[in-house]
Specification:
By secondary structure, the protein is an alpha+beta fold. The protein contains six helices and 19 strands. The protein is elongated. The N terminus is likely disordered.
Amino acid sequence: MKCPMLSGGPIGATDRMRSRWDRRYAGVLVAFALFALPACAPKAAPTTAKSAPQPVVVTVAQVKPVELRRTVSGVGTLYANEDVMLSPKVDGRVLRVLKNEGDTAYPGEVLMELDPTDARLAIGQAQPALQAELRKLKLEALPESDAVFTAHLPNVDSVAQAKANQELAEKEFVRIEEEVRRGVGSVQGLDSARTKSKVAKTAVDLAETEARVTLAQARRLSSALDDAEDRLRETQLRVPVPDDWAAWSAIVGPAANPVRYSVAARMVHKGATISPMRVTNAFRLVTDHVLKLRVAVPERYSPDVHVGQKVEVRVEAYPNLVFPGTVARMFPTVDPENRTFVTEVEVPNCCRKLKCGGFANAEVLVRTDAAVLTVPQEAVVTFAGVTKVYVVEGETVKAVEVEVGAREKDWVEIRGAISATAKVVTSGQTQLVDGSPIRVR
């Protein structure tokens, strides 16, 4: 069989084969031309200098010197100026209860009364017996001392009678002795007169001794009477009188005296029996015109806190009020568990707004610094343990390391190499480094 192209086969078939080959060859040429063109194209000229950095848009604020009060803060509990637990000194049945919890009790006021019957009976027995003994001694009242009674002894009837008998016996003895000396008296009569004189002297001593015994009995009855009267007084349980009550009354008068007690607890009821075998607490009283706030202060502030410093006290019940106080005393020991020492603050409470046992916050005013540099809180940047601010210097910034002090809502205290007239960046710090150009918005 012959090839169509060599053997003169049909022309149409041969032309179709040649056309297909031309198209394939043309595609290869186009692909080669596209690959070779970039390599043959001329290269761009290299850049000779870097472009200048663009300024960072920031906001700035002025450093502001302020007067700053240095304070030491703490929390504590309010205690009463005086906290007294009262109990009756005598036993008996409770007759009346005159005060309840929350009542105000003035010094000397009666809180409770016991049945006074037994005490009155004791007074009724001791008083007549005492008067009888005093009558024997011809006295209206007990003598102040033994020397006074010795001078009064001749007025006692028994002593006066014995002294009179002694004088008579001594005169009889002298008369008989004179008769014997003259030879008209007998020796037997002289001996009898001498004996009567001695007996009379002994009778005087005995009368004086009996008078002193009667005085001792009178004093015993007087003590029994005083005890009975004291028991009668103690049947009324009264409010104690504080030491500063008289001083306040002298200044403002008893009616306006702020020193008073408040009844914190009542533990007895009408009809109850007070037993002599055990102590029965009846009332708990507190004085709250001045309260004691005991604040736990960290040990590191011990050199800064002193007696007499002013204190601002706040409580949650009155969030908008500040109660002034004064450091009254500092405890000498440090608690080894939390390393704090107790500072006691006296807080005037004449308005009675503060309550004993309440919780309070205290700020002790240590000192006042005249010019403390402050910046907005957003101006301070902390990264990798370094705190700094960016200070504006012309059209660039400088990073300055600072120490942060007191903080408030809108500002923070800074300490470092920064002037009071400097300006600091408050936004855009994340794009800044030392020396970055800026544009203030």
